[in-house]
Amino acid sequence: MVEGGCGKCIQYLMFTFNLLFWLAGCGILGVGIWLRVTQGDFATLVPSIPFVTAPNLCIIAGVIVMVVGFIGCCGALKENKCLLLTFFVMLFIIFCLEITAGALAYVYRDHLEQFARDDLMRGMDQYGMAGQSGLTRAWDLFQTEKHCCGVNNSTDWFKRPVWPNQSWVPDSCCKPEFRPNENCGQSGITLQFFEDGCVSALKTDFMFNLGLIGAVGIGIGLIQILGMVFALCLFYRIRNEGTYA
């Protein structure tokens, strides 16, 4: 066992830290599941970049944090050098991956709009087709909530496979005051449709999600540094005192 007040203090700090770390993982996982349930349909609009969405990242991060926190708690309680070293290595790897992911997201942030634009254009060709009910629902929900129409504007919907010879748009493109009209998207009156394209709304959501993830990542990164320091301190104290689990 770790002897001395300083050693016990480090052990208790290590356990408390990892308990809070594990609880934080539960919270992140819960938020990710909630976001997945409430916003999951939107991910079908941009299949090329599914992991840019906050729900998926929160779920993945929550599970990883819970596993790492559990290992750290066991290592602190059992004073097991192997678990402590595993905990340190896992935290270090995750920390390096976070830095790499953050750098890549910053470098390629301007390319996200083009990826989204290409996916949205392809998705419009599948709108209303057999077997594409999820994508169709996602388009209607996104246009309704974000008050947008098409990729760049409403004309993007003209002569799509669902209505190959018509200059129509989905009814979800109609402004709220015109939506009660039956088949309002077939009126041909562009003033009744939302003026903004959906790619700008999607880009805004992406930037918000990336900013949110970045802020959470910085906070978790600082906590991870503390965790690595505690793990090393406890590991070396156990080794120096000749304690083996």
UniProtKB/TrEMBL annotation:
Cysteines joined through disulfide linkages: C148-C184
Record InterPro entries: Tetraspanin/Peripherin, Tetraspanin_animals, Tetraspanin_CS, Tetraspanin_EC2_sf
Primary localisation category: membrane
Any Pfam family: Tetraspanin
Domain of life per record: Eukaryota
GO cellular component, one term: plasma membrane
Annotated transmembrane regions: 12-34, 54-77, 84-108, 212-236
Keywords: Disulfide bond, Membrane, Transmembrane, Transmembrane helix
Compartments (UniProt record): Membrane
Membrane topology of this protein: Multi-pass membrane protein
Family matches, as PANTHER family: TETRASPANIN (PTHR19282), TETRASPANIN FAMILY-RELATED (PTHR19282:SF534)
Similarity comment: family membership: Belongs to the tetraspanin (TM4SF) family.
Identification of the protein by name: Tetraspanin
Name of encoding gene: LOC109467689
